[in-house]
Description:
Largest sheet: 7 strands, mixed
Order of helices and strands: EEHEEEEEHHEHEHEEEH
Low-confidence stretches: none
Number of strands: 12
Structural class: alpha/beta
Strand order of the largest sheet: 6-3-1-7-8-12-11
CATH architecture: 3-Layer(aba) Sandwich
Oligomer: single chain
Shape: globular
Distance between the termini: 23 Å
CATH class: Alpha Beta
CATH superfamily: Class I glutamine amidotransferase (GATase) domain
Amino acid sequence: xxxxxxxxxxxxAFVVANEGIEEVELVETWQxxxxxxxxxxxxxxxxxxxxxxxxxxxxEPFPVDQITERARADDYDAVVLPxxxxxxxxxxxxxxxxxxxxxxxxKGKPVAATCRGARTLIDxxxxxxxxxxxxxxxQTDLRNAGATWVDEQVMVCRNGINVxxxxxxxxxxxxxxxxMTHIFGERHLVA
Length: 191
């Protein structure tokens, strides 16, 4: 469980496509940020709503706070990339989303991706030389992009220009959220 107020004032960008986000991966990570005192914002390619899913069935839509085209790395302290069957594949084709995540890496800000969310990192060439975990179904994609893939609940990689936190699957979200808020809190203390 995250420490209350560990992230007070921290601005965390949740970058998603407008469709296909696995609901539990958005809701649980969002709640962990809120419980730790952070200020999450939902960023997507189009204004309006982002549609979540329970696997392949539509779930709740969530309001978009900012579009990727207007998102600026200077306005946020960290990024979360939730997964889903469709979300990461749609998001990786949105150049402003990939550019935003790349800018967060370049500024040394922590990035967390769970399940298939790490797929978006491939298009920014952000996993080369990094150790990551993910949904096993995308391990070949990550390896082909230059990552070392491990079958762990959560992986924290400090071998790069920023800290990269990756999670394996929805069943591992408690461990992922605990590690994510801890790492984000470390970054928040030095910012």
